[in-house]
TrEMBL record:
Organism: Edaphobacter dinghuensis
Domain named Gamma-butyrobetaine hydroxylase-like N-terminal: residues: 38-131
InterPro entries linked to this entry: GBBH-like_N (IPR010376), GBBH-like_N_sf (IPR038492)
Annotated protein name in UniProt: Gamma-butyrobetaine hydroxylase-like N-terminal domain-containing protein
Keyword Metal-binding tagged: yes
Coiled-coil portions: none
Keywords: Iron, Metal-binding
Any one Gene Ontology molecular-function term assigned to this protein's record: metal ion binding
Length: 143
């Protein structure tokens, strides 16, 4: 149940969510190197201090926007981060440009913020969030 960004959950659900949100080791959420391939239009790669490597394409990142509006919409529809909204069935589909950032800016020392070509710009992609949504084979097998 949601009301203006407040979600009321049962005690069991709260415990389950707390277990899922286990604290990650500091090196696991601290980037050693961040590459944003904006000019190439390909995506973001991060080498973490713990030796792990993560990579995401821009379309996936836009569909995984962590802002409250996008998160709530995904939650209502049961979609996981990175999964696109279902398209309405129409006779002649309109062309939609693939998601690309117009701007990428660091937010302090803890996140990236994207201004997307569709005008959306309210999501802040923290290092913690990006590590938790890593798409590599190792992380996918855990998930």
């Amino acid at each position: 149940m949601s009301h203006e960004g407040i979600r009321i959950v049962s005690a069991d659900e709260a415990l389950r969510e707390a277990a899922e949100e286990k604290q990650l080791h500091a090196d696991a959420v601290t980037p050693k190197k961040v590459r944003v391939m904006k000019t190439e239009g390909t995506g973001v790669e991060i080498d973490w201090k713990d030796g792990h490597h993560s990579a995401w394409n821009f379309v996936w990142l836009r569909n995984a926007c962590p802002c409250a509006t996008c998160h709530e919409e995904r939650e209502k529809s049961g979609r996981k981060p990175g999964v696109a909204k279902p398209k309405a069935q129409v006779l002649l589909a309109m062309y939609e440009a693939p998601a690309r950032p117009i701007e990428v800016t660091p937010v302090g020392k803890y996140a990236l913020k994207f201004k997307w070509n569709d005008g959306h710009e309210s999501g802040i992609y923290s290092w913690d969030y990006l590590r938790r949504v890593c798409q590599c084979a190792e992380c996918a097998a855990k998930g």
